[in-house]
Every structure is written in C-alpha cells, then in structure tokens.
Amino acid sequence: MRISSREAIELLLEGEIVALPTETVYGLAAALKEVKAVEKIFLRKGRPNNNPLIVHIADISQADKLIKSFPPDADKLMEAFWPGPLTLIVEADSEAVPAVVRANLPTVAMRFPSNRLILEILEQVGPIVMPSANLSGKPSATAAEHVEADFGIDFPVVDGGVSACGLESTILSYDVQTKKWQVARLGAITPEEIEKVLGYCLKLSAADKSGNPLCPGQLFRHYSPEAALYLVENVEQLEAGSMVLGFSDRSYPSHVKVVALGTLSQPESVAIRLYDILRQLDAEAVSKAWIDVSFPREGLWLTILERLMKAAQK
Ligand code: TXA
Ligand code: MG
Hints:
Layout: H1 5-13, E1 18-20, E2 27-31, H2 35-45, E3 54-56, H3 60-64, H4 74-81, E4 86-91, H5 99-102, E5 107-111, H6 116-125, E6 128-129, H7 144-151, E7 170-175, E8 180-185, H8 191-198, E9 228-232, E10 243-247, E11 257-262, H9 267-283, E12 288-292, H10 300-312
Parallel strand pairs: 3-5, 4-7, 9-12, 10-11, 10-12
Antiparallel strand pairs: 1-2, 2-6, 3-6, 4-5, 7-8
Bound molecules: threonylcarbamoyladenylate and magnesium ion.
C-alpha cells in the first residue's frame, strides 16, 4: 500500500513499521526508540536476532547522541561521503542505542542517507533503524513493487521510485590494532574513492581475530532468488537455450538467451538493475541462469561480483 511521507511519519511515531526509499535500497523502518517496532522488523523479515541493524540519522549531531566517540579520520569520511551511501561502525552509547538494534554488540552502525524523502522523514521522527526491505536471504528491494512482492500489497511503503544506487551502502569499521579503517561490507562507494580520502589502502572483506566477518550479516544467506545461479567467464560452452545474464555492449553466441544487466562501460547501470533482474527470475519461474562475470575486478564491479557470489550460494 503506497503511503505518503506524512503517513509514514505518523505510523513510525505510533510504533509501527513501514518501508522507506533510500538512495541505496529500500529499508524496513522503525523509530530507534520504539523497541517493540524494532522487534517486529526482525520477525517480519525472518532475520536472525544476532544480525544488528543500521541506525539512520539526518545530521551529525544526531549521531553524537548515540555513540561514545568517533574514531580517527571519521570526520574526513563524513565530510566526503555524508549524506550518502557510507555506513560507519562506531562504539555505541549503550543507553542511547537499544541492545536489540545492536544485537548486543558494543558498537552501532550509523548512516546519513541522501535521499530527499528519507531525510524529510528522519527530520520529523529522529533516528530510524532500517535493514534492507526484503525477506531475509532474498535480493534487496530497489522499488516499491519489490517491497510489496515480499511483504504483501497491503504493507505500507513510501514510493520513491527506483533506488538511485541499487546496491547497499559501503560499511567501514575502525581497527584499533592497525589504526586503520577497513571495509566490513563492499557497497555503493568504491574502496578506491575511500582510499583517496584516507590516503592509505583499505583491507577488504576483513574478519575479526577469530575469523568472524566484521558484519554479522555476512554469515547469512543473501540476495538469492529461487533460481540456481552459476557464475561463468566463458559462455561459449553453454547448452543451447541457456539463460545468460550479460551485458548489452558485448556480443554473445546466438544459441544462448541473453538478459542484459546493463553495459560493461557503466557498472552503475548494472548496479541499478541487479536486484530487479534477480527478482524477475523468480517472477518468471526461471529455474537456472548463468551470469557472465567476465568484467573488471575493480571499483563498483567488486561489489557487484560479491553480491553475485552470495546470490549464487545455496
Ligand atoms: O544501504 C544500506 O546500508 C541499507 C539501507 C536501507 O540503508 N541497509 C542495509 O541494511 O543494507 P542490512 O540490515 O540489510 O545490512 C546491514 C549490515 C548487516 O550485514 C549487519 O550485520 C551489519 O550491517 N551491521 C549492522 N550493525 C552492525 C554493527 N554494530 N557491527 C557490525 N556490523 C553491523
Ligand atoms: Mg540486507
């Protein structure tokens, strides 16, 4: 059910959950202080309660009230990328951020989004927690229709059109040992862009000392349609009629069926369509598809590859 920003503000203040657009993907929202509503998010998504949520804010002073202190160089990162698709993991003020939001961790993930509608809502409601608005394990939602496909036509969603980035935020965490930020989840901002601001190379997909991923969510199944997905670099040897998710600016043998993810010259075009195309496979009851992963291993392509690898895991 499409609702206005005004209606979303009222529902959030009454302790309800709603879906909201952001520049990355749609989020399933609850007001930070409404603990019952936060619990509803976990239930509605089928999300394990040891997978913490990101807190969204509309200005840096809101962040100051939720954390102990910002790690070194956080100011440089915030200045360069906020508002926008960057999430920082910071030591939480445990009184200000309910334990259920943090999955009992001492830290909180914070993001200042740039989408106009979400900012308008954050200004009225205060900090809002939002995981991506999809059933746990499924591809994220990049349009109001995707939210309705997962949660039902009556679920309240503010329609902000197709998400501008199409991929989730990049998550960074500060390592006190090396005194450097590291990438906890690849996302819409590339490591190269962040390295320019920090002046050093970022460690990717880092894990803690016991080998656990820095984002608990990385442990769970993600972004997966029902269809079996296979990543391939050479489509020549595929059987006739095989469905290939490929690129509109590459030529393919005539015996395969190609669905274009976007163009090789613009990874942003692929990012915007990626989850929609994975969702279409299910809508059309496709049982198998091959994905052409013969693309550069740099920039946004790294995030796209990481999502495809997760989507293909069963
Ligand atoms: O772009 C985005 O980040 C979207 C939009 C809606 O803002 N949100 C999103 O949330 O992708 P979600 O819940 O689908 O993914 C958040 C990830 C999870 O892997 C979770 O484990 C991790 O962030 N996370 C949240 N709080 C954390 C914390 N305190 N420490 C480590 N990881 C955390
Ligand atoms: Mg998610």
